[in-house]
Amino acid sequence: MRLRSDIWVSAYIRRCDIEGVQAVLRRRGAAEAGAIWIKIDRLDGTCALYGPAPQTAFDADDDLVRRFVRLHADEAILIPDAEARLQKEIRFDSDLWIVEVDDRSGNPRLDLAEV
Q1: What 3-state DSSP class applies to 86?
Q2: Helix, strand, or coil here: 5?
Q3: Is the predicted pLDDT of residue 64 greater than 80, yes or no?
Q4: Residue 56 forms part of a structural domain
Q5: Where are the alpha helices (DSSP H) in the chain?
Q6: 6-44 confidence digits (pLDDT tens)
């Protein structure tokens, strides 16, 4: 059984805070199992956007782990492009969570999937 989304998001924001990086909850989703999206604002007009990894990125033993993938090929994209993608995803899934992190280095602090 995977950790609830609300608990995972709270822990992620706390981790960022401990590391001295500002992270804010922009959108609250379904507490138990809402999809989590992370936007890393590089503070230069660009950002990186991470979303849930596809099920094919998980092993049978990975039930407890939340894995993410960067949702674009380039290391960073323009913020308006990320915002357009987020709005599209909200229309598709109104239960999703959005966390925004301000980090010039672009470090997502996530378990990334190999896809």
Answers
A1: helix
A2: helix
A3: no
A4: yes
A5: 5-18, 79-92
A6: 999 999 999 999 999 999 999 999 998 889 999 999 999
Q: Does a structural domain hold residue 114?
A: no
| CA–CA gap between residue 58 and residue 115 (Å, rounded) | 10
What DSSP designation does 115 have?
A: -
Number of domains in the chain: 1
Cα-based distances in Å from 101 to 63, 89, 93, 104: 26, 19, 21, 10
pLDDT at 61: 61
CATH number of the structural domain spanning residue 36 = 3.40.1530.20
Classify 100 as helix, strand or coil: strand
* The model scores a pTM over 0.85: yes
Are residues 101 and 21 in contact, defined by beta-carbon separation less than 8 angstroms? yes
Domain membership of residue 48 (yes or no) is yes
In a domain, 83, yes or no: yes
Is residue 8 a contact partner of residue 65, using CB atoms and an 8 Å limit? no
Range of the domain at 82: 5-102
